[in-house]
Design brief:
It is a single chain. By secondary structure, the protein is α/β, with parallel strands linked by helices. It folds into 2 domains: about 1-130, 3-Layer(aba) Sandwich (Ribose 5-phosphate Isomerase B, Chain: A); about 135-180, no CATH class. Helices cover about 40% and strands about 15% of the residues. The chain contains 6 helices and 5 strands, in the order E-H-E-H-E-H-E-H-E-H-H. It has a 5-stranded parallel β-sheet, with helices on both faces. Helix 2 (about 45-60) packs across helix 3 and helix 4 (about 95-100) packs parallel to helix 5. The chain is globular. The termini are far apart. The structure holds ribose-5-phosphate (R5P). The site of ribose-5-phosphate has 8 residues, from helix 3. This is Ribose-5-phosphate isomerase B.
Length: about 180
């Protein structure tokens, strides 16, 4: 599998370990940076580039996943989720790693490198990569709703506040119905 990875200064040591680990396991690793330590670097562009590559590869039918990590994993998850088609999950134990794939078909895992030992974080990523999406209808339905909202700003048959309509004034009355048939 092709694995796109990205981090910031907080995860650079773990990145070197992870790249060796995943390559030894037979994966094709694509590193989106950073390439050297800079305590003042910024995670958004690295993680967004990894997420764009995952989204592009998936659209091309290439088997791929993304791994982003920093001090907490929070900002890295937020950055990855800005990219269309990306479902990035913040994982903090084996259960959330497995559920991110089973229920959410997450295509990016985010990890807080400062929150875990190297062995723990590596085991979460291995579990995430190994786990398939169940494909169960209820999970597929919910994922489709997220994709629909991402593409259109609405979810057919569901109430979505007009505040979330990209064409609406952000100060619109929250009671304004956003339901569309
Ligand atoms: O959510 C963001 C990540 O955890 C960053 O890795 C973290 O904020 C970096 O913190 P600092 O700049 O204090 O090393």
């Amino acid at each position: 599998m092709r694995i796109h990875i990205a981090t910031d200064h907080a995860g650079l040591d773990f990145s070197e370990h992870l790249q060796s680990h995943l390559t030894a396991a037979g994966h094709e690793v694509v590193d989106h940076g950073p390439t050297s330590y800079d305590a003042l670097d910024d995670y958004p562009s690295f993680c967004i580039n990894a997420a764009i590559a995952v989204s592009r590869d998936q659209r091309a039918g290439i088997e791929t996943l993304g791994v982003v990590f920093g001090g907490s994993g929070n900002g890295e998850q937020i950055a990855a989720n800005k990219v269309a088609g990306i479902r990035a999950a913040l994982v903090w134990n084996l259960s959330t790693a497995v559920l991110a794939r089973q229920h959410n078909d997450a295509n990016v895992i985010s990890i807080g490198a400062r929150q875990h030992t190297v062995e723990e974080a590596t085991s979460f990523i291995d579990a995430f990569i190994a786990e398939p999406f169940t494909g169960e209808e209820r999970h597929a339905r919910r994922i489709a709703q997220l994709a629909e909202f991402e593409a259109t700003g609405v979810i057919a048959g569901k109430y979505v506040s007009a505040q979330n309509d990209a064409s609406a004034d952000v100060h619109a009355d929250v009671d304004t119905p956003g339901l569309r048939a």
